[in-house]
Amino acid sequence: MAQIVIYIRLEKYLAEWLTHSLGDPVKFPSQSNENAVIRAFLQQVPKGAKPQTGGDGFTAIVIPESKAKPPEKWHYLGPKGQDAVREAIKDLFTQNLWSDLSRLENTRIGVNTRIAAWCEMHGIGLDRVETVRQRYYRIRDAYTRRGINLQNSARKKSDKPPEF
Predict the structure, then answer these.
(1) I want to staple 32 with a disulfide (CB 3.0 to 4.6 A). Which of 3, 28, 51, 91 is the partner?
(2) Could you give the CA distance from residue 106 to residue 110 in angstroms, rounded to a whole number?
């Protein structure tokens, strides 16, 4: 059976990361949060609506199989449904970015070098490194302003033997 897709407009760095990680068209793991969001907001195509087509700036995403909403009939996402899927994708990106880079926070490797290497490893064009770097800093700074330190703190070592 042919895969039926929906098209979501994503920022270039997100589209590159997503297709590098999950293929083109993007196919999320069957029990993923992203598939749950897609299934929740899928609709039958409204009367008079034109089928979604791809194009520049759009990313194709495979509609997950569902007995309740077979993709042959349920293959439309309204604008707010697309916003919900986009938000789920951004959350996944943020988790991936933070998970990979936070482990290296206390190394002597500069943030710009780490982020450029991460982008390269995840299929994101080097002309979008600055966008990813800003996103990383915004996450870290937002928590820091609320008193939550997400940076790993090196444990102070002492030459004194432990006291029992």
Answers:
(1) 28
(2) 10
Q: How many domains does the chain have?
A: 1
Q: What Cα–Cα distance (Å) separates residue 94 from each residue in 15, 69, 84, 152?
A: 14, 29, 15, 18
Task: Examine residue 21 and state whether it is found in any structural domain, yes or no.
Answer: yes
Give the per-residue pLDDT at 56: 86
Pairwise CA distance, residues 35 & 62, whole Å: 9
CB burial of 48-78 (b: ≥16 within 10 Å; e: otherwise) equals eeeebeeeeebbbbbbbeeeebebeebbbbe
Regions of the chain with pLDDT less than 70: 1, 106, 150-164
The residue type of 15 is A
Query: What does R_g of the chain's alpha carbons equal in angstroms?
Result: 20
Cis peptide before 25 (omega within 30 of 0): yes
Q: Which domain holds residue 69?
A: 5-145
Whole-model pTM: value is: 0.84
Residue 154 lies in a domain: no
Answer whether 128's CB lies under 8 Å from 24's CB: no
pLDDT at 106: 66
